[in-house]
Amino acid sequence: MSADSTPGPGIPGESGTKGTRGRSKGHRRKPREKRHKGLKIMAWTAAGIVVLGGTGAGYLYFKLNGNIESVDIDQALGTDRPEKVDNGSENILVLGSDTRAGGNKDLGGGTDDGSARSDTAMIVHVYEGHKKASVVSIPRDTLIDRPECTDTEGGTHPAANGVMFNSAYSTGGAACAVKTVESLTDLRMDHYLEVDFTGFQKLIDELGGVEVTTTEDIKDPDSHLDLPAGTHRLDGEQALGLVRTRHGVGDGSDLGRIQLQQAFIKALVQQVKEVGVFTSPKKLYSLADSATKAVTTDSDLGSVNSLMSFANGLKGIGPSNMHMITMPVQYDPANANRVLPLKDKSQLVWDALKNDRPIPESAIRDTATGEARDVVTAS
């Protein structure tokens, strides 16, 4: 069949013809079949973009999903837990650990035997409406009675009296840490979020650093930190050194380190709110990749969608409406490196959170502080 006799794409009402024959030369118009073909090309191009875009998004989704580690806290702890309080509030236990760290020892952390430990523990209480929060830090050196607990592998760990708080995590991991906090406070932990220290460092670097002001020199060889008084934009390694230092500030106790952590968290929240990550897809992906690699969550938060929804619910909380305290404690008369809970004052804290009320100032009056509260401030 010749080229001239090959059927064209066709035009409605002109079966099998090219539609240009028989028209006078003076009245030629743009052929309709070309317009039709152009529309088809545009449609297929658009469809291709959608398919390719969807495939890319799907790939990124599964890659980020694969970054997240999660643990089934509810399964491990069973039903012997404080009741959920249905008042619109949420309690999240946040731990800072060296669980995934290969390089944490280089940053002043890690253990020689390769085991994991938790240096930071905070109960984040998000009030009804998710516009404000109270954060209660629990000193790792607090002497407590640890309850019997079951870890996420099904192993049972016996109760122990008068042991350090952070022994719960090193003994039975996330589930035992949650069990211990719930036993200590009689508050149900709705979620669990663990931040790995090396991942934390990378996340700070992705953010472009965090700006803080130090009112005095901070020098601590153990955490590799050397900051003269003044304003600094801390990179990831410096930020990690700051939240882990204890010998360079205040009275050298864990309480002083907690005060530095609280000041840094406020600066970090401010930095996250200010950085324009949503204007740059590449920046947003880099941050999401680092963030999802840095965290371990409870199973309810163990997907990108759940984690994004959870984070979106907290976006209205800024540094000015975060009330941060340390669990009321006193120094142990028998050992200056340990602290003891002040039960009556602590109960004021737990009762306030259970009833979704502000923590009364009387709860933290005349308690051990660490003497480092104003050493670091958000710039």
Write up this protein.
By secondary structure, the chain is α+β, with helices and mostly antiparallel strands. The protein has two domains: 35 residues; 311 residues, LCP protein (Aminopeptidase, 3-Layer(aba) Sandwich). Helix content is 36%, strand content 22%. Helix 4 packs across helix 5, helix 4 runs antiparallel to helix 7 and helix 5 runs antiparallel to helix 6. The N terminus is likely disordered.
Distance from first to last alpha carbon: 80 Å
Helix content: 25-40%
- CATH architecture label name of the largest domain: 3-Layer(aba) Sandwich
Strand order of the largest sheet: 1-14-9-2-3-4-15
Query: From the alpha-carbon coordinates, what is the Rg to the nearest angstrom?
Result: 29 Å
Q: What would CATH call the class of the largest domain?
A: Alpha Beta
Total of DSSP H or I helical runs spanning 4+ residues: 9
Number of strands: 18
Report the uncertain regions: 1-26, 47-55, 100-114
**Can you summarize the main beta sheet?**
7 strands, mixed
Please report which band the strand proportion falls in: under 5%, 5-15%, 15-25%, 25-35%, 35-45% or over 45%.
15-25%
- Examine the coordinates and then state which fold CATH places here, giving the name of the CATH topology of the largest domain: Aminopeptidase
